[in-house]
Amino acid sequence: MVSPQRAERIPLIALFFLCYVIKVQAVSYRERPESLAVREGQTVTLRCAFIGLTAQSVVIWEGPPNFNVMSTDRNVDSLYKRHRITGNSGRGEYSMEIKDVQVSDAGGYRCSTLGLQEKAEMMLDVIVPMKKAPKIIVSDISITAGQSLTLSCRTTEGSPLPTLTWFNGTTQVQQSNEELTDDRSIASLDLVLPELTRWDHGRNFTCVADQGHPELAPLTASSTMLNVKYSPVVRIRSQSIRASEGETLDLSCDVDSNPPATVTWRKLGGDIPTNAENRGGTLRLPTLDRTAAGVYQCQANNGIAPSGLGSATLTVQYPPHITSNFNRKTSPFVGQEAFSLLCEAEGYPEPRVRWRRKGTKLYFGNPLQFSRIDYDMEGDYECVASNGQMRDAVRQIFLDVRGKPYINTVSLKVSVRSGDTARLVCEILSDPLPEETRWLRRGPGQQDKPVTASQRPGIREEETTSPRGVTNTLVISHVGRSDGGVYVCETTNTFGTFQREFNMEVKGDTNTQAVVIASITVIVLLILFATIFICIAKRTGLSAGVKREKATSSTLTASRALPPLPPYLNSRSVPAMDPDDMDGLELQDFNGTLKPRPPPRMDKQPYSIGLSYPSLMHPLPPYSTVERQRPDGEDNMVDSPYLEDPWETEDFMTPPALPPKDLPGKRIDSSVLC
After folding, report:
1. Cβ pair 484, 505 in contact under 8 A
2. Which residues cross the membrane (predicted)?
3. What is the second-level CATH architecture of the domain 13-127?
4. Residue 96 and residue 111: Cα distance in Å, rounded?
């Protein structure tokens, strides 16, 4: 039976025990051990660090073989003389350092302490590089095409033992099998080639050994090249050969065989030329002639059946040869018609004869015909004879055109602005060269006068000479409008004279044209504004005067006698009027009707511009009688069918007269004129 005092202590002990367990279980890794590899003889550190260690915590390292205890806290077992614990214990660091690592150090390691739920494990691989490359063993040294072959790759070097791989050049090939001994001291890999061909000859097969850690142990490899024997294979580079007579020809026979074959030549249906040289795969035929043509065969033999055989057909051609013996140069004259050059050649096959201008690829027929000779045709021409694959035969002739000069200038119209410099270029083709070249100016009556520098400053000539002729340029500085016109370039040599006209047009200055256009525009605008103003004035001020005149027209007194009636008025067209009623009225004719004429205004001259009577304005027939008044105030009645001066009439604003039938009894208002 437990005493009461002990019963009170049990919960307290349990509480302390629980706190201790919680503290122990709170331990964790700050740096877990990780697997790594190291090269034999180097120094390696296996890192391990904790969080939550207490003063009572104990760190244990375990290692190979079979996870034996190697150290407790910082104490290392005496069996491990190359091992020691490193790091700061206060920070929970318990790393193990191994110097001069040996193969026996490889294996599993574990770093742990009390309270860890999982103990971290790591693997240490100790790499011993291979000292020698793997060895390749060939099952049959002498192999012939059609047989099989086995290649074996073996090695006993390195730790761990490498993985072996076969490569054909740079291409990995399928591995047939891999053999390892029970103690894993030998690695072996075989490659089986079931049936070899001539294409396998010279192939490079490589066995590569890989220990898995190229940074510590580089890859090693061994290679072998296959030696496969096979019968000769013959190939003629060209089965149909064409050669020219007189050339040296090499007939080549390419032979592929292992071992090398012996090559012999023969000609079917004849003998090989006596000067032929047999150089194994090449038969040289120096200085060919037509008898060398035929079928040639080469035969190759290396002791492995069957032998190789190839053939080629040789055709000997005759090169073209130009037989025409024409001179190196011919000299036709300008203007000569139906001129031709004939070229003849021979060869086999029969050559094709053509002409071309030297330096061009445009061909002409044979003979070369010219309808009419001019200077543009001068130059070198070549007769070309060709017959297929042979080299062409070429003979050259120079066409030297002679005659009077010719001006070849294209642009005969020159346009220049006033004030600029004009250049008239006269390009002269001539053989012989011109003796004299001058410029003329064509005046009235087709008269030509020489243009010289003495006429005015700024005129000069520039002349350059070329093999084909002369270029003469007339330069006129500060051109004015008076300089425009027709200029003539005249050139002369032994055979005659030639002229060419140049038309020079001098345009006005751009600023002057702009001023003229602007002035015309201003004048038109002023006329337009004046017209509008007159129309407005007539519609406003003058209409008021018309009304006043209508109001007072009945009280006007005639100042002159009534004019006589026109001849065309008779008693039927004019109603009878009492002479007493007509007293004091001046009548005027209006379309056959007598109307009162307004009294004259004595305060103004009757011929003054602007003096008019709009209310009484009417058209006058061209045959009516019109009253005129002289400037001195005297009355004068003039009977005339037409007016000599319409501006001298009293009503000068009256529009042109219309026939009476067009205005039957209608009055014209002057306002409609606008």
Report:
1. yes
2. 514-537
3. Sandwich (2.60)
4. 9
